[in-house]
Amino acid sequence: TQLLEQSPQFLSIQEGENLTVYCNSSSVFSSLQWYRQEPGEGPVLLVTVVTGGEVKKLKRLTFQFGDARKDSSLHITAAQPGDTGLYLCAGARGGSYIPTFGRGTSLIVHP
Amino acid sequence: DTAVSQTPKYLVTQMGNDKSIKCEQNLGHDTMYWYKQDSKKFLKIMFSYNNKELIINETVPNRFSPKSPDKAHLNLHINSLELGDSAVYFCASSQGSRRREETQYFGPGTRLLVL
Fold it and tell me: Residues near B89 by Cβ (< 8 Å), separated by ≥ 6?
């Protein structure tokens, strides 16, 4: 059983479109992180959210942590080809600082 | 300057062989990790070391043995390689503050193919 479920698994869109990626769990997390992994590279941290209901913005990316700290979403506005990559959510539970990763959403943005 | 480096980047070998992957970080971090990413991109932690001491050892076959000669290095030795070991192996490091906002810095990965 996967602790963190990400949806959709794959997403192929045109440049300029908006999209939302979801990360859901039945468990409560003390923190949740989003990473982006480009082909042939390791994951790179985009954001960490720690407070229920928290919203963080990173240019065209908006991250939200659910009120109950069980889920999170990543919204990208006006997607660009440079946004192409694998988006991974990772949650840490209880007193642990070691995150558990979801299976990722593979995004392709076509020019 | 590369923060977390791994060698080799590609490793193709025969079943039954023994191989090692090296990892070095120049960030001054106290904690290092090994992850395995399978063909479906699932990233799963294998080991974690803090100041050269093993702190996490997930359910990993004992053919896998991490070694940390100092806190800047964490190597992974694999004995008797099997087909199912084919994957991308990522090394990562973090400050080791054990705070929930801790950032992990990943290396570029080692692509292992066992034939």
Answer: B6, B21, B34, B35, B36, B37, B76, B109, B110, B112
DSSP B78: E
Of B43, B100, B108, the CB nearest to A30: B100
Non-local CB neighbours of A57 within 8 Å, separated by 6+ positions: A63
Rg, C-alpha atoms of chain B: 13
Q: Among all residues of chain B, which has the CA nearest to that of A46?
A: B103
* A48 at interface of B, judged by CB pairs closer than 8 A: yes
Question: Which residues in chain B are contacts of A65 at CB distance < 8 A?
Answer: none
- Write the pLDDT tens digit of every residue in B55-103: 777 778 999 999 999 989 999 999 999 999 999 999 999 987 666 678 8
Q: Are the beta carbons of A98 and B41 separated by less than 8 Å?
A: no
Q: Which of B99, B101, B106 sits opposite A43 (nearest CB)?
A: B106
DSSP-derived secondary structure for chain A: --SSEEE-SEEEEETT--EEEEEE-SS--SEEEEEEE-TTS--EEEEEE-STT-EEEETTEEEEE-TTSSEEEEEESS--GGG-EEEEEEEE-TT--PPEE---EEEEEE-
- pLDDT per position as a tens digit, A16-70: 999 999 999 999 998 899 999 999 999 999 999 999 999 999 999 999 999 999 9
Reading phi first (left if > 0) and then psi (alpha if -120 to 50, else beta), residue A3 is in alpha
